[in-house]
Amino acid sequence: MALLLALAFSGFLINFVLGFNVDRIFSKSNTPPAIFVFGDSISDVGNLIETFPFYIPAENPPYGSTFFGMPTGRSSDGRLIIDFMERERGGDLNIGANYRHRVNFAESSLTVSNITSLLPPRQIFALPLQTDHFVRFKRKVLAIIHSNHSSEVLISSLPAAEAFKDGVYLIEIGINDIFHDISDNFTLDHIRKNTVPVIISGISKAIRDLHKEEAKKFMVFNYFPVGCFPGPQAVASQGPFNYSRNELGCL
Q1: Residue 135 pLDDT > 80, yes or no?
Q2: The whole model's pTM is what?
Q3: Span 79-97, average pLDDT
C-alpha cells in the first residue's frame, strides 16, 4: 500500500501541503538550516532500497522517470513532497550522502507502532527506531565537529551544530498502521477507537523525545484520505466486513 500512496495522490498532496504550510515555514527571513525527516514512503528518498535491495519496485523503472531520469528509491515517478519543500528552502536534490541541509530517516512501509512490515523481509521498523537513529546521528555529528582530526570536507557535508535546535522536524507516518489493520480485517470502528489513539500517542512520544534533543520546530502531516487509496479499497472489498463507502466511492 505504501508504494501506491505517492503515485495515486502526489499532485494534489504536493499542491495542498506546499500552499498551506511551506511558504510560512520557509520564508526568506526564516529559512531553517536543516530539515530532519521521519516517516514512510511519502518521504522515503531511497532508504529502504539501501537497507533491503531488490525488494520493492521503487528501484526499477518507471519510478523516477519524470524528473531524475532513473529510479532513486522514491515511491513516485518523480519528486516527493519533501523534495518540493527542499526546493522552497533553496536547496538542491543531491542524490548522494550530503546531510548538510536535509537528513532523512523515513523508510517505506514503516509504522508508528511495532508492527511487522507488510513488505519482505517482514522486519519491524517503527518510528521509535527512526528517532533512535537520529539521536545516534546527532551524537556522531557533534563529535566530528568538535574533533581536531576531522576534515573540512567532511564537516561541510554535515549539519551545523545549531541546526539541531533551529531546524524543522517533519513527521509524516501512521498510514501504514491503519492499512495493516484493514489488511487484518479489523473494522473501521476498531481502527478509530484503538489504532488512531496509538498512532497519536506514538507521534507525541517522538516529539517529546526529539524535544529532549533540542528540537523546537515541528511539522506533523495530517493523514491523507486513506479510504480513497486503491490498496485499502482492494483489501477491504475482499474482507468479511462490509465497509461503507461515501458518494465518492471511498471507504
Answers
A1: yes
A2: 0.84
A3: 76
Cell of 13: 498532496
**Greatest C-alpha distance within the chain:** 65
Assign 17 a pLDDT band (cuts: 50, 70, 90).
very low
Which residues contact residue 165 at a Cβ distance below 8 angstroms, ignoring those fewer than 6 apart?
214, 215, 216
CA nearest neighbour of 169 among 98, 106, 88, 225: 106
What residues are paired with 36 via a beta bridge? 103, 169
Give the strands of the sheet with 102-104, arranged side by side.
102-104, 35-39, 168-172, 217-220
Residue 36 C-beta-side C-alpha neighbours within 13 Å: 27
Torsions phi, psi for 170 (to 5 deg):
-100, 125
Residue type, 99: Y
Strand pairing category for 168-172 and 102-104: unpaired
Residues ≥6 apart with Cβ < 8 Å to 230: 4, 8
For residue 209, give Cα distances in angstroms to 145, 160, 201, 216, 244: 23, 20, 12, 11, 38
Q: Give me 3's grid cell.
A: 508504494
The C-alpha atoms of residue 53 and residue 247 are separated, in whole angstroms, by 41
How far apart are the two ends of the chain, measured CA to CA in Å?
A: 15
Q: Once rounded to an integer, what is the mean pLDDT over residues 173-196?
A: 87
Q: Is the pLDDT of residue 157 over 90?
A: yes
CB-based contacts of 9, cutoff 8 Å, min separation 6: 224, 225, 228, 229
| Cell numbers found for residue 93 | 536534490
Helix (H) or strand (E) holding 201, with range, is: helix 196-212
Cβ atoms 131, 206 nearer than 8 A: yes
